[in-house]
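Researcher: Structure prediction, please.
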Amino acid sequence: MTQDLEKTLWATADKLRNNMDAAEYKHIVLGLIFLKYISDSFEDLHTKLTNDKLSDAEDKDEYLAENVFFVPPTARWKYLQFERAKLPTIGKDIDDAMDAIEKDNPNLKGVLPKDYARPALDKKRLGELLDLIGNIGFNEPGQNSKDLLGRVYEYFLGMFADAEGKRGGQFYTPESIVKLLVEMLEPYSGRIYDGCCGSGGMFVQSEKFIDAHGGRLDDISVYGQESNPTTYKLAKMNLAIRGIDAKIELGDTFHNDRHKDLQVDYAIMNPPFNVSDYGAESLQDSHMWKYGVPPSSNANYGWLQLVINKLSPSGIAGIVLANGAMTSNSGGENEIRKNMILDGVVDCMVALPTQLFFNTQIPACLFFLARNRTNGKFRNRKNEILFIDARKSGALVSRKNKAFTDEDISKISEVYHNWRSKDGNYEDIQGFCKSATLKEVEENNFVLTPGRYVGTEDIEIDGISYEDKVAVISENLKSHFEQSIELQERIKLNLKKVGIEL
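Model: Predicted structure follows.
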């Protein structure tokens, strides 16, 4: 029922988009869902306080005490939907509402979208969108309106990422990948960190994991950083909807680390793949490069070492990277990889199926790193690495995208848990998983491709798998094509300015 409702809501909202770009429309819709959510939370407590003769329902402190955002009268959803939605001033009314909420709730300052009054935004369609979101949860038996709004927000994040393609994937990691990372790491309690947190999906999934296993959200502390100001705002709203008190900071993680001295129990990250413009020249003497200076042409081994630097003595991390990181010999990456392996920090490698991401066709993998694999928390695994080849897992959820099923996630995570557990009954499975010794890895020239160990082997050229080469070439061709189209449009626009129509 919930899935049907989500699809119906998306289809209706998408129709209202008209000719507006998904990247722009995203903030309009998600801002309204957020406003509806906090207004519903406010109204629930407001009703309780009104019925309590000893309480003042308009006292901000009453809401602060219950960790509920205070919503002033002109920003409440009922006022906006039933008294203002049909008026031509509805855009300004919503902007004023967002301003009023930020003034009464300092931790939301500068986070909420406030561009609803712009002339290009059709006010009739905006009013229709207000009515659409206003009905979420009211007609569904047994539904909690706020829970449903949270799920709708998350669903819309994914759909916007899909609609935007390459750009949208920068703020969103597909849910099934996040779920697999969280299930493997099992973050029950402690500090959780994501140095490129996008819209905050890693933290949301961690909260769901804790809830599903009977834990308490109070047992975790959340720390994140995001360099894109727009995405940073999405993350703040996404986490506020969940009631997650996260310390999310804005800034470049390599050059302006806002959690510099932080030591964490869990790090979960999906950094941008193969970034070449990360300012490596000014990082040559960084304290992070324990295993070697990463090349200026690729940040992959910069991210891996940054994460290791953040881990506490018993900390563990799961990171999504392009497959090339498992085999690359360029810029000294093979030496860094060798040093990490010999030091015993590489715990497990998972090869992922293609078509999981909205924004790239480059095949990806998961690196699981542990600061100290002899600390007694699990069995001593210092001289072993677990390899899992999950390339045949996943099922199509659309014409172009796959996702892990719950069965896939359970199968992969259980193999990892059984392997690292002191009393687990782990066994190698031909073609799927293999516990390899460091000697075996050394014999394979410190290449970390699971297919080398579990029973199948990729064709490789110059240390990089054939499928990686093809994917990177395809991605570059696509990028050049998009740039060519953009250039043509700019030329047409400039010619039009001087009176020449093409």
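Model: The CA atoms of residues 342 and 438 lie 8 Å apart.
Researcher: Thanks, that helps.
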